[in-house]
From TrEMBL, chains A, B:
This is Haloacid dehalogenase. The keyword Hydrolase applies. Belongs to the HAD-like hydrolase superfamily. S-2-haloalkanoic acid dehalogenase family. It comes from the Bacteria. One of its GO terms (molecular function) is hydrolase activity, acting on acid halide bonds, in C-halide compounds. Keywords: Hydrolase. It comes from Rhodococcus rhodnii LMG 5362. It holds the Pfam family Hydrolase. The keyword Signal does not apply.
Length: 254, 254
């Protein structure tokens, strides 16, 4: 990594090529799937609960079905049909609907504990090293749809050295609404082109790119489990395409 | 500090007595005067500019007079007579009014540089050690009237290890309005009594206390310069009364 190739002229880069890191002040991260393994972490907690109760739930499948309700749950807020509420609230509503569908009864304490499983997500093995390297010369912060308390709990537990907690709850807009990216850049007093979004999801990078952000695609081939079929390759002309956070740091010369 | 006296029953403490740190999840900090020496830092930058221009300004007096406009500048926003704008905007307006009063002309670049002096504030010598100790077991974040970009610039330059950047711009309310404290606790998903405000200003602690926050008064006897007459002693029944950030950490058993 110390012997990275020289910076090319226009700052565009493919896998392994560097871009000019001095042109970027803030490196902002999608979190679910990009920074942390939400599926494995939530499934672990569902499995513990299922065993305690003797429910015999397929925990990974349960996590997937809970997550299926994630995008639809934000739609009314994105379209102005509902006031902004934090993701913890949407997670709770989605869980209650899923439990009802499955005809599983759960106490208020059990529901609280499951909702808070999203506050105990494990980072991917390369997450901390990459963010720590980037932090030396860049602002590093989550730009997630997760709420502030969730992001703080995850970071404190995992030791993620964020400079700030940004994202949906701060700007009161859920990605991929343009306001989520543009208001974040405005809060940082930065033009969008001095912000980079790091994400393992093409749709998120597409929306950020439309707002003028620089983009880094990090492939996370197991974020949806062993049968992942999407987000295995870049689907846009992203500035950086890599397979780990240290490789993002290397691409920016950090 | 390792031999601090035992925790007393009701968690109340005077200088040197510990309170039960396990009852507090978030330690939130006033910044101007408490974490950083705003007066010395702004005066230093005014002095450099004055010398370059040969203006012969009394830099400390200029800093004081700029700061005199600080509280009045927030009043229309506190009273709902003006939309929230970040403190950088108010600092610029106050500076322009002061320059006009002094009949000093300044270019747009000079004004920008002076406004950004508030992004280059030096911490007090004990600041970093105390916050780093508290960070091990508590959420540590600014709860300042400063805006996010300002707080981030100060922290990155000085190496202040915040977990998050909270405060006026996040909750769109200026202290001592109750919303500034209550909305911050709500964002952290904490009841107010699990939040502590650390401040060198009695009025700030009074407002936080009214909202249910725990309080730590740190005397900063030179924050207003050599002739300081206010905030030299506690004027309320604060939970902790100390003279440094490491002493706040010790009082919480951190």
């Amino acid at each position: 990594m110390d012997e990275a190739p020289p910076v090319d002229g226009d700052g565009m880069a493919l896998d392994g090529t560097r871009i000019d890191g001095t042109r970027i002040d803030a490196v902002l991260f999608d979190v679910f799937g990009t920074v942390v393994d939400w599926r494995g972490s939530v499934a672990r907690e569902v499995e513990m609960w299922s065993q305690e109760r003797g429910l015999g739930i397929d925990a990974a499948d349960f996590a997937d079905r809970w997550r299926e309700r994630y995008q639809p749950s934000m739609e009314p807020i994105r379209h102005g049909e509902r006031e902004f509420v934090p993701l913890d609230v949407l997670h709770r509503e989605s869980l209650e609907a899923l439990l009802a569908e499955e005809q599983i009864t759960a106490s208020a304490d059990e529901i609280e504990r499951l909702v808070l499983a999203w506050h105990r997500l494990d980072p991917w093995p390369d997450t901390i090293e990459g963010i720590a390297r980037l932090k030396a010369r860049h602002i590093v912060a989550p730009l997630s749809n997760g709420n502030i308390a969730m992001m703080l709990d995850v970071a404190k537990r995992a030791g993620i050295p964020w400079d700030a907690i940004l994202g949906a709850e701060v700007v009161r807009a859920y990605k991929p609404a343009p306001e989520a990216y543009l208001r974040t850049a405005a809060l940082l007093a930065l033009p969008p082109e001095r912000c980079m979004l790091v994400a393992a999801h093409n749709y998120d990078l597409e929306a950020a790119s439309q707002c003028g952000f620089r983009t880094a695609f990090v492939v996370r081939p197991r974020q949806y489990g062993p049968d992942q079929r999407i987000d295995l390759a870049p689907e846009g002309d992203w500035d950086v395409v890599v397979d780990s956070f240290p490789a993002v740091a290397a691409a920016l010369g950090a």
